[in-house]
Amino acid sequence: MTPIPVIIVAGFLGSGKTTLLNHLLRNSGSARIGVVVNDFGAINIDSMLVAGQVDSMVSLGGGCVCCAVDVSELDELFDKLAHPNSEIDVIIVEASGLAEPKNLIRMVVGSANKHITYGGLVEVVDAVEFDATRTRHPEVAQQLRLADLVIVNKADRAPASVASLVNEVRRLVGQIPVVATTNARIDPTLLFDRPKRQKEIGAQLTLDDILRDDHDHSAENHRHLHDEYESVSFASTAPLDPRALLELLEDPPPGLFRAKGFVAFAARGENRKFLLHKVGRYIRFTPMRWAKGEQRGSQLVLIGTGLDVDAALERLAATVHDDAEPLHPQTMLGIGVYV
Ligand SMILES: Nc1nc2c(ncn2[C@@H]2O[C@H](COP(=O)(O)OP(=O)(O)OP(=O)(O)O)[C@@H](O)[C@H]2O)c(=O)[nH]1
Fold first, then answer.
1. HSE (CB half, 13 Å, CA atoms) of 233?
2. How high is the ipTM of this complex?
3. Whether residues 44 and 90 fall in one domain
4. Among the atoms of ligand 1, which is closest to the Cα of residue 97?
5. Do residues 93 and 129 share a domain?
6. Which atom of ligand 1 is nearest the CA belonging to 22?
7. N or C end of the chain, less CB within 10 A?
């Protein structure tokens, strides 16, 4: 079972977290989303009801996700959601307005549950309120730097200043990708994959299908959504230099948000296949065996926003170890840190 990514959505009151959650639920495609929220009142559950997901909705007892709940309770929720029968593909935890995402990240990364993995922190910023929020809470900049993706929402309400605001946020957060949105409409594939699931033959069009935002699927909008992010695919039959790959992952090209795939390394005696999962600064390698007859090699996909595709490909190509002579086994040490 591939670990289920747990995505944390945070942001100040009223910035658009629930709007984002509803948008993701409506446009999840074949992906099944498990949500952890404090209050279901505002969540559009229709789309989940018809998808049979209502069982996987779990509310945390009273109060804010990370203050009132200890780790064991959140772990219990993850156990429930990550149960193979639930067929959940992604879990989204909405931090309440003032909840400190840091603790949530710690809970997810430190969870004993082997079936989940950290899927990144999305910080939602209100384009209209940002300056005022920053004056009142100077620590907001620090908080944003924890994010793996920053969404500057309500672009429609600040059309004249949104571009400069995005630049200002970029200056604050450095390499972290920043996107401007209206109604938090980001492309869900930026955050999670839509698995190929065969629909039952003769299955009726579900309410889910009907409810799906028409808007997002109009040709114009689609183009717009996809303009916001780039994805780079890379394949190599020659094995990769573990040090070079690590350098790329630890110091990624600006705008890189996710990296996934599998890798064959060029170290002597290293015969394993390494699954790679990276989101923001979080990197994880999972060693596996190659299947019988499987062609050894590496396949990686980088996803980002504002990513320089050619430069990213060039850096990927530079990780290939062309020499027939394998590298010293010690070159794997750095990878071990992320296993
Ligand atoms: N004009 C405009 N309104 C938006 C946008 N996104 C969200 N809103 C509205 O802003 C209000 C707050 O959005 P929510 O999604 O509830 O925000 P939230 O972060 O979940 O709020 P809390 O749970 O109270 O912290 C709602 O009335 C939304 O309809 C946007 O891009 N443009």
1. 2
2. 0.97
3. yes
4. 25
5. yes
6. 15
7. N
